[in-house]
Amino acid sequence: DVLAALLGEPVEMANPKLVRQVTGFAIGGIPPVGHAQELDVVIDEDLFAIGDLWAAAGHPNSMFPLTAPELAVMTNGRVLNIRGSVAP
């Protein structure tokens, strides 16, 4: 797994109960900030080439606009070349 190799530790998908416990939100509405616990945020650097992004705002039917630089600042996220690390 590319992300696991970049982080140097195993990565696995969390179940809905754990997601709710750690973030305080249900899957589908998890915002980038305001989580119940501090999270290690990883941002794929390809997002910086997109321009405007939309993030969940705490509910599956609520979103807000932002940019990749704003996302990086608000989350204190690590920007990694995830896609570029994948062999073709």
How is this structure best described in words?
- The protein is of the alpha+beta class and 88 residues long.
- Helices cover 25% and strands 18% of the residues.
- The strands form two sheets. It has a two-stranded parallel sheet. Strands 2-3 form a two-stranded antiparallel sheet.
- A hairpin with a 6-residue loop joins strand 2 and strand 3.
- The two termini are 14 Å apart.
- The mean pLDDT is 93.
DSSP summary, beta strand count: 4
Calculate the terminal CA-CA distance, rounded to whole Å.
14 Å
Helix content: 25-40%
Strand order of the largest sheet: 1-4
Helix/strand/pairing class, anyone? alpha+beta
Number of helices: 3
Mean pLDDT across all amino acids: 93
- N to C succession of SSEs: HHEEEHE
Low-confidence stretches: none
What about the largest sheet?
2 strands, parallel
Determine Rg (CA atoms, Å).
Answer: 14 Å
Shape: globular
The portion of residues forming beta strands comes to: 15-25%
